[in-house]
Structure formats: C-alpha cells, structure tokens
Amino acid sequence: MRKRVFSWILTAAMLTAACGLTGCGNKDVETKTETETETEQEVQEPSESETTEGEEAAAGVHTVTFYDSDGTTVLNTAEVEDGATAQEYVPEKEGFHFAGWFATPQLSHKFDFATAITEDTSLFAGFVSYVEDTRSFAIVGSGKSPALMESNWGAVIGEAQTMTKENVEGANVYTITLDLAEGDEFQFAIDSSWSVQRGYGYLNAIEQDGVEYFKNSGGLGDTGVKKANIKVAVAGNYTLTLTTYPGEDTYDTEDPYYTEEGKENFNFNAFDTITWTYNGEAADGGEEYQTDYYIKGAVITGWKDVYTDETKFTEKDGIYTLNIALEEGDEFLFTTLLTTGDSQSVGNEYVRYTNIQESDSASLACVTGTESANMVAVKTGNYTFTYDPATQILQVACQ
Question: Considering the entire predicted model, what is its pTM?
C-alpha cells in the first residue's frame, strides 16, 4: 500500500510540473492513464475489511448511564459490548441507604443485571433513609405444605407462619425457612386481612440456573403484579427473606375502594424486596391429603364457601360429578377443600369456564363465560358437571 501511495504522489507531482509548463485543461484530466486511475481509487476507498471492522466497532458498544434518583445527575457511565451485561456497583450517598438500581425514573421496578445490553441504557439509583420497621410479617396463603395449609389464606397466623426479624444494623430484614409444595400460593402481610401485602412483584428473581422456581399467579400491570400471589413451581425447603423500607411506603389513594380505615390494603413500596434461597428437597415427604370440589356462586352460595353434601362433587374412580339446580344468570365456579387428618384448608385450585374444551359444543350450550373465566348458567334447570383432575377437563350437561 505504501508503494502505491508513493507512486500516486510522484505521478501527481509530475503532472503538476507538466501543467505548469504546457497548461492542462479538462481533456487532459479525463485522459488519465488506466494505471493512474486504478492507483487513485485504491488510495481514496478503504478496503472492505477496514469498513466492516469500523462499523462493527461503532455498533458493538453501548453506553450504560447510572443516574441519581433525581433522574438527571450522572453518577457513572460504563461501556458495554453488545449482548453483554452491565456490572452492578454500589454508590454511596451520605445519610441514605442504597436500595438498588431501577429501570425507570419513576423507580417502578428494579433493573435485572442479567439483562443483555443491546442499546444505550439508563439506570436510576434508589436511595432511601433508614426507618425502623416495628411491624410483624407472616406468610399468608394456601396449599399442600403444612404451614400454608394451616394458614388457610391467612386465617391462621401462628408460629409456623410468623417471620423472624433479623438483627441487621441499618436494615429491616425478616426471614422464614419452611417447606413449600408445588402449586402452593402465598404472599407476606402483617395480618389476616393481608394489610401491607408483599407479593410476586417484590421478588428479586424467579429463576436459578435456568430453573423457574416461582410463577406469577395472575396479576397484571405494575400494581397487579405486586399484589399477585407467588406460586411455587418447584417443591422443596426454602429460606425466604423480606427486606422493608417503611419510610418509603406509599398508598394508592386513586383506587375507587380506598379508605383511610383500610389504607394498609393499598400500601405499596418501590424498594421492598423478597429474596430466597432454595435449600434442597423438603424436610419430609409431605402429608397425605384429600381434595374435594365444591360449587361457589352468586346465587347458589352468595359467593360464600359452603361445604355441604348439596354443593360437593362426588368422586368415583378419580372422576368428580355434581348434580345441582341452578337459576338462569347465576355466576359460579368450583373451588377446592384440602383435608389432612383432622385439618382442613381452602385450596388454591379452581375449576372455571376455561376448563371446558372449545370443541365441546354441548357444554358450551349450557354455560357462558365472564372476563374472569367464571361460568354463567344459560337457563334455569338441572345441571350435571363432570370433572377429571388428571386432564383438568370439565363437561356440562343441562336440562
């Protein structure tokens, strides 16, 4: 390449000298030799490899900007290769505690540092002042594990459900270690009314080594996700940790059901977190339990749990059947009751309109569905419901 450049310069110098003696017009420029033209193009146009490498270098690096909680003050920046992850660091601010990095300036949800960086990214620091939390938290929910079966959706809060507050300087940390069964659902709260509930949206992670340990039991949107039940995907023994920052609690006063008396049911916090450790298999093999199915509806039970022979499915060879009279327009679903020895608890399994197959025109002629997947009786009359828990398919006959 150097020889070609030198050759071009030498040629240009000779042309300039010649023009100075004889004068050069457009015709002279247009009649450059083939060798001169080829040499000039080689100098003016970079090689294909050089262009590609330059473009890849420009596109392969992104800037991650770390902002203070005000959303404008830059605390730090980092260059991250495309597809790589950003490295978390802990900033310091006098008089405040750092509660993590958030993905939005509103601090609505935390940033996951396992996320691949594919564009310039802004992160926002969550700084909070320490306020001692004097509340007592417990696990509330239902399921087949001993603690949650006894909890019965928070009706019982005893020693097995109460979290222990750890002695951690400058932090409010609550822990509980217990067995959880697959399908269990739970949250944390301060009482049986589920005040100050902390649900799925407070989890810092749901996976470990590519395995999903917890699921969202149905909440949508930022508010809904925070208040959604945490559903256990992998049975085992867990240590669950709740970290709270009560000085940052806020209230959803815009909710149409909000009242000052019941405001703790509308309590939210952008900084509280739930972390967990999977300790391995459950301490015991679990107790034997029986599942029974019952109807629950607007007219038939007044939306109350009524456990009678009239509302209960009968079981034969693993298939459950219920014969019952319904009024036209009655909205209903089927719930479960778990029994272990002398203990009973409301289950978290529900049978709804979505358990009817789309191809089952006979069943769909008897009931319609609501947005919440409840069933509605099409006419007044006698109904027969048949449910197979193994396939989770529901069939309906009416007359």
Answer: 0.70
